[in-house]
Design brief:
Elements lengths: L3 H32 L6 H19 L3 H27 L5 H24 L14 E4 L2 E4 H23 L1 H11 L1 H6 L4 H26 L6 H16 L4 H21 L5 H15 L8
Antiparallel strand pairs: 1-2
Helix pairs in contact: 1-5, 1-8, 1-9, 1-10, 2-3, 2-4, 2-8, 2-9, 3-8, 5-6, 5-8, 6-8, 9-10, 10-11
């Protein structure tokens, strides 16, 4: 019989993991909602950030938390550059969603192969002074890397929410998301807003990638696994919604955590995708979209 303590432990672990899924998924959701771009290379940038953090830690002793000071601005610039060089070229195509999927699929493969060339296919682990350390709260074990990753993830989501709702540029992003042609008519620079959105999305993938690396080993092709979960998070929460993405990530984490405790682990992914099918049948726009 499964103990109450195990269920609580699995629930909390799922919440911590779900927060990190949400941080990784928020950028994927933004580009989909604002630009109609489904960036299949999104998680590849997350894995790149994990490797950069690993490289800085191994060669210079820089803690992964401090490495984000370098990684986030770097990925924002890279994201803006990718938009200018690639995405902008298809921005006015007849079906940008399909075009972007094909383009970003190829970009993801390119990034994966560059990582293979630079770091090989061997799994890497982010070994810090607190890796493997835990503390207890009321008999529940909390992994320090998981807690740090969750705090970072929630901070990332809060910063993006503040940007979207409290700044002029953020409100312009929302305007483009809600009514693209109307936004252009009132003087909003669509290309500039799209560039900022794409840069911000890739930067958030960097935060998510480092958070993931706190908890799990990583390797170049891992982005394909992460991408499946990003689709789940965004579809459950609703495309373009920061709050919905946060809720979707937490729901996914809880379902995976509890499923892992109650049933054989090999069935966990099946349970998650059955949940997705049910949600799509009941509310295809996402649970948190009006």
């Amino acid at each position: 019989m499964i103990s109450q303590g195990l269920i609580i432990q699995s629930l909390i672990s799922g919440i911590l993991m779900g927060g990190i899924y949400a941080a990784m998924g928020v950028g994927f959701s933004l580009t989909w909602g604002v630009m109609k771009v489904i960036n299949l290379s999104h998680c590849a940038f997350g894995v790149v950030s994990a490797y950069i953090g690993y490289w800085l830690l191994k060669n210079f002793g820089v803690d992964p938390l401090l490495s984000l000071i370098v990684i986030v601005p770097m990925l924002f610039v890279i994201g803006a550059g990718v938009y200018e060089l690639l995405i902008k070229r298809i921005q006015h195509s007849k079906d940008i969603t399909v075009s972007s999927m094909l383009l970003c699929f190829g970009l993801g493969i390119l990034i994966e192969n560059l990582m293979l060339y630079a770091w090989s296919a061997s799994p890497r682990v982010m070994n810090t002074r607190y890796t493997g350390e835990s503390f207890f709260v009321g008999g529940i074990s909390l992994s320090i890397p998981s807690v740090i990753g969750f705090i970072l993830a929630m901070s990332c989501l809060a910063a993006i929410y503040f940007f979207l709702h409290k700044t002029y540029t953020g409100k312009a992003v929302q305007a483009v998301w809600q009514e693209r042609e109307g936004s252009a008519l009132v003087g909003i620079n669509i290309d500039r807003v799209s560039m900022i959105t794409f840069g911000l999305a890739i930067a958030s993938a960097g935060v998510g990638g480092v958070c993931m690396a706190f908890m799990y080993s990583f390797y170049p092709s891992l982005h394909n696994v992460w991408l499946l979960f990003m689709f789940l998070v965004v579809i459950v929460g609703g495309v373009g919604s920061v709050v919905g993405t946060a809720a979707g990530g937490l729901i996914l984490g809880i379902v995976m955590g509890l499923s892992g405790a109650l049933i054989s682990y090999q069935w966990v992914n099946a349970i998650v995708f059955v949940l997705l099918i049910i949600i799509l049948l009941i509310k295809p726009q996402g649970l948190f979209k009006v």
